[in-house]
């Protein structure tokens, strides 16, 4: 970097800037781009944004922990530690609604919704790796269809000649587990 100010002073100034300002500098000034990306990476991995992001899945909420920052693609990767969510549905091709959550921003979940659609004709016991993208994030997920539970046998009374039939079929049961969240710089700076 060939500038008027030494690198130590520039890095010290960058320590006091907001993430939004660092993203603006990274986009507008080629000479300061590497320093800005370095400071962004440092803040994502160790700084204040450590537990800032989460995802609302079906009816539960999970937190995302920073894992790495890719300076080439300019994306932050977060790992998601969660137990699989069990989903029952009476039809295939069901949409599972999710939302990106940001700490200290109540309105953020209403703007950044995405859906994971269950594939039609999915075999029992089969696991599918999915990449779900929208304009603000990318999520990697695993969807598994569980076998139908066996119905308990109903003891028929010999005095009743009628056979008992269930009123509704057994629901399809799926498990959904999110594994990784990817956020571009535009989402981080929003």
Tell me what the structure shows:
It holds the Pfam family F-box-like. This is F-box domain-containing protein. InterPro entries: F-box-like_dom_sf, F-box_dom. Residues 1-34 form the F-box domain. With 190 residues, this protein is an alpha+beta fold. The protein has 2 domains: 1-48; 50-151 and 169-190, no CATH class. 22% of the residues lie in helices and 36% in strands. Strands 1, 2, 3, 4, 5, 6, 7, 8 and 9 form a 9-stranded antiparallel beta sheet that branches. Strand 2 (60-70) and strand 3 form a beta hairpin. Helix 2 packs antiparallel against helix 3. The longest helix has 14 residues, at 33-46. The two termini are 28 Å apart.
* Average pLDDT: 80
What is the CA-CA span between the terminal residues? 28 Å
Can you count the helices?
5
Gyration radius, to the nearest Å? 24 Å
Return the domain count.
Answer: 2
How many strand units? 9
Percentage of helical residues? 10-25%
Largest sheet: 9 strands, antiparallel
Strand content: 35-45%
Low-confidence stretches: none
Class computed from helices, strands and strand pairing = alpha+beta
- Taken in chain order, the helices and strands follow as HHHEEEEEHEEEEH
Q: Looking at the structure, what is the overall shape?
A: elongated
Domain F-box: 1-34
InterPro entries: F-box-like_dom_sf, F-box_dom
Protein name: F-box domain-containing protein
Task: Give a short synopsis of this structure.
Pfam families: F-box-like. The protein folds into 2 domains: 1-48; 50-151 and 169-190, no CATH class.
């Amino acid at each position: 970097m060939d500038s008027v100010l030494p690198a130590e002073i520039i890095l010290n100034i960058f320590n006091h800037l907001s993430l939004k300002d660092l993203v603006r500098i990274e986009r507008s000034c080629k000479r300061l781009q590497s320093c800005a990306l370095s400071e962004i990476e440092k803040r994502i991995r160790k700084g204040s944004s450590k537990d800032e992001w989460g995802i609302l899945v079906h009816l539960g909420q999970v937190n995302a922990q920073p894992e790495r920052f890719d300076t080439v693609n300019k994306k932050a990767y977060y790992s998601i530690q969660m137990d699989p969510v069990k989903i029952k549905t009476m039809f295939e091709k069901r949409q599972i609604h999710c939302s990106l959550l940001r700490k200290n921003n109540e309105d953020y979940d209403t703007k950044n919704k995405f859906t994971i659609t269950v594939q039609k004709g999915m075999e029992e016991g089969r696991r599918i790796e999915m990449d779900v993208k929208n304009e603000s994030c990318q999520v990697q997920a695993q969807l598994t269809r569980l076998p139908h539970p066996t119905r308990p046998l109903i003891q028929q009374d010999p005095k009743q000649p009628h056979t008992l039939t269930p009123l509704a079929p057994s629901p399809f049961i799926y498990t959904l587990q999110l594994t990784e969240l990817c956020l571009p710089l535009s989402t981080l700076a929003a």
